[in-house]
Amino acid sequence: MEQKVEPKAITLSKEDFGSDQMVKWCPGCGDHAILRSVENVFPKVGEQLGYSKEDFVVVSGIGCSSRFPYYMNTYGIHGIHGRPAPLAMGIKLANPKLSVWLISGDGDSMAIGGNHFIHIARRNPDINYLMFNNKIYGLTKGQYSPTTPKGQKTKTSPQGSFEMPFNPGELVIGARGKFFARALDSNPKLMQEVFLAAALHHGASIVEILQNCVIFNNKIHALITNKETKDDNQIVLEAGKPMLFGKEKEKGLKLEGTKLKVVTLGKDGVTLDDILVHDPTTDDAGIHMMLASMAPPEFPAAFGVIRSVESETLEDAVWNSVEHEKATSPIKNMDDLMNSGNTWEIE
After folding, report:
1. Which domains does the chain have, with CATH numbers?
2. What are φ and ψ of residue 103, in 5° steps?
3. pTM for the complete prediction?
4. pLDDT tens across 7-27, in order?
5. For residue 49, how many C-alpha atoms fall within 13 Å in the half-sphere facing its CB?
6. For 324, phi and psi rounded to 5 degrees?
7. Which residues have C-beta within 8 Å of that of residue 155, sequence separation ≥ 6?
8. 271 to each of 236, 265, 266, how far by Cα in Å?
């Protein structure tokens, strides 16, 4: 039995979700823009999916991003380090009609929470997972994280990190995840579009947000976000449209053999027909994996919804199993249970 929210007339506003708590992030932190984007999106989610204000739950682990539940006027849980995923799954399994939002950082998600991260992707509960990626541990003052670039000097890697970083998109798709998107804290419009798409997707919607830590990792995403370089280093994907980028949309992505290649329209006979058209809905993850893996300077970083494949959710499967057992089990009450199996009478 698929558990879905019954549509109902809902009128909500951004103000309905604003908390009375003082927001204690550093001035200039990208988290502020993410918070405002979520506040703007929640009313749209309520309107389109029939959620009332009381149906929203925000869950977090530990880190700067994980203060989020305090700053939203919703139900919420500030959990423990690396463990927001099982909390969020438990909430969704217990009450599938809730809109559950999981907030985490790159350290919380992929260091102590790495195991939970890949399992929430493969289990596919209908949860919206927003992962803030500033490629550093901010709350604990500047240690390298699982996404810190190799060679970067930090408080815990004074000679440069020796480790290869994780790519969150590769982890999601490699774990058989059905939805992965990427956004930028400097582009609120795109963030809101991606967050709404995540909410409308029935399943685990994992969104990586490239977020700037002004204190401990300032301008880590500068190659992608600078006005002078961003046109050549980011591509915003749209379903059904050619994968074009550049200031004049003169560049594109072409599949050459089994690999992607950056080409220029009008050069070497390249036409619009040669450019790949984005299809986030195909279950063939090959192109999606390549798109998630792209990075400057060889390729632009991909943004928008990279993968969105419909599939049975964890809570649908669990509740279908419950309904099946209720319908077919000979045990209907406590008396049936107590008198089932091996029983003895003692005289």
Report:
1. 14-220+312-321 (3.40.50.970)
2. -115, 130
3. 0.93
4. 566 789 999 999 999 999 999
5. 25
6. -65, -45
7. 141, 142, 143, 144
8. 20, 6, 6
